[in-house]
Amino acid sequence: MSKFRLKGPVKKPQDTKRTLKRLLDYLLDYKLQLVFVVIAIIVSSMAGVAGTYFLKPIINRYIIPAIGLENPDLSGFIIMLLLMSSIYVLGALSTYTYNRLMINISTSTLFKIREELFTKMQKLPLKYYDSHTHGELMSHYTNDVDTLRHMMAQGVPQLISGLITIVGVFSMMLILSPLLTLVVIGMIVIMLFTVAKIGKKTATYFKRQQEQLGKVNGYIEEMIEGQKVVKVFSHEEVVIKDFEELNEQLRQEATNANTYANILTPIMDNLSYVLYAIISALGAAMVIVGRSDIGTIAAFLQYTRMFTHPISHVSQLFNAIVNALAGAERIFNLIDEEEELDEGKVTLVNIEKNSDGDIIETDKCTGCWAWKRPKEDGNVEYIRLKGDVRFKGVTFSYDGKKTVLDDVSFYAKPGQKIALVGSTGAGKTTITNLINRFYDVCEGEITYDGIPIKEIRKADLRRSLAMVLQDTHLFSGSVMDNIRYGNLNATDEEVIEAAKLANAHYFISHLPEGYDTVLTADGTMLSQGQRQLLAIARAAVANPPVLILDEATSSIDTRTEALIEKGMDRLMEGRTVFIIAHRLSTVRNSDAILVLENGRIIERGNHDELIALEGKYYQLYTGLFELS
């Protein structure tokens, strides 16, 4: 029997009944296999029980009568041994069968659960990820799924097998000797009491161990991320000392936890030996006074050994299964999370002009787009995609308590370059989040080419936009694939043209494999500036009418910034562009600069107008007031 034990404190599900029902819904897809599993478990368990009973007739009918005989007849003895062996072989085959079937059922079930989990995560709103850490989300795929796999593949079959064995063995013990069975029950009570006492202390210390382990792991992760800072300030010795203190606390808690955990099995084993000795002595006495026979006592002793092990094993399995159900509940809670709502009906379509000069929809990629808006009379109207974005009295709060934007109104006409400046927390990034509908406004309205963006389907809205963020994320794959992520239909030539536009072509050409160079670990082989250039190229290949640059050149040095300035100008030409920048030199040529403070627009104008105003922008630009 393979081991399936709980490591650490038991975490109980809040709604066990509901969680079990959800799991059964998955398992019922394999009804026929489950029927064979149950049959195989019963056969496997009862084979062990039935095989042991053969000790009684073998000893009483063949071994004892043959004592002292020169040429005993062993034909009956051999037949009994063959029959006994056949039963054990049947039990072994049944064990293999149900284990093999349960592996297939569990892996297939977890395949579906992982798919549902990952699919759900793609449909969750951005605010869900803002309120949950990456480690917390990854634990669903690692810890929770792993405990669920152990439970389905091993825990539940072993639990059922153990319970059947206990019932079967107890029944046979009652048949063989009710008196000795009472003695066994008395010792089992003592064993269970011991398990409860030690188990309680074990759970307490394991909980402390897990808490301390979390501190140690957190400290290690923090020091690895901040290793450069540690070395810059020569704090290696201090860091080592702090780690030694945390590690020592973990050692003490782990020692206490594992001491109690490891003494439980020897205590149980020794109590079972004591029980075995008591039954042997009482059994011998019963044989001497004629109250029983040697075959019965021999079989009963074997049943005694079979009875004590499943009881301790079932108690461990039960705790482990409860812990696995708690993990399953966390998985189902994520699957049941409310998806990102999308009530938009306006879609984005390719268009071309017919011979009469009218706009018509086409499946061909023309590079010209229009909004397809359904009308109440059942017809549709096509509104040319231009990139006209307007905020009208927009008020927004992330948590419903603190207002981030307060009655913000402004416009960005097609082709205009709008810069957003202000201190951290002023609301600059929030404006771009609202344009993308990562969040919806609390009050007011945002329109896109005259259409309220709530009417536009989110996927189509975001297809018309491209963003270059301050924190660049590159996927595992070639440089070509990372740029093409902006437009999966782009040809190699279009990707290379986009790279040239962003001035990334030169450094890409000098990579070991050029555009086929494979990037891993978020592109750590590249400099931060090079990674940013790839992000700009990714936005360029998308060829959007609206472009959002959120500190897009923050990680690029002044020389590199100057090199790509012309390419960026070409990229922004004819597009509506929103720029968030702390480096104010990058926004000088903007058509309009919006200065935000505490969620309000306090100044608007171009660079020369705001300098002449000598207000907040003037203070920021001249260094009288610094952005923070």
Walk me through the structure.
This protein is of the alpha/beta class and 628 residues long. Helix content is 59%, strand content 14%. Strands 10-13-14-7-15-16 form a six-stranded mixed beta sheet, with helices on both faces. A four-stranded antiparallel beta sheet has the order 2-1-3-4. The chain is elongated. Residues 1-9 have low confidence and may be disordered.
In short:
The chain is 59% helix and 14% strand. The chain has helices at residues 16-27, 31-53, 55-66, 75-123, 126-130, 134-176, 178-225, 227-232, 236-288, 294-335, 428-435, 458-463, 479-484, 492-501, 505-509, 528-542, 558-572, 607-613, 616-622, and strands spanning 347-353, 359-362, 369-374, 380-384, 389-397, 403-412, 417-422, 443-448, 451-452, 465-468, 477-478, 518-519, 546-550, 576-580, 592-597, 600-605.
Question: What's the CATH topology name of the largest domain?
Answer: Rossmann fold
Instruction: Summarize the main sheet.
Output: 6 strands, mixed
Distance between the termini: 63 Å
The CATH class label of the largest domain is Alpha Beta
Q: Tell me the CATH superfamily of the largest domain.
A: P-loop containing nucleotide triphosphate hydrolases
Number of helices: 19
- The beta-strand count equals 16
Task: Quickly give the CATH architecture of the largest domain.
Answer: 3-Layer(aba) Sandwich
Strand order of the largest sheet: 10-13-14-7-15-16
Assembly form of the protein: single chain
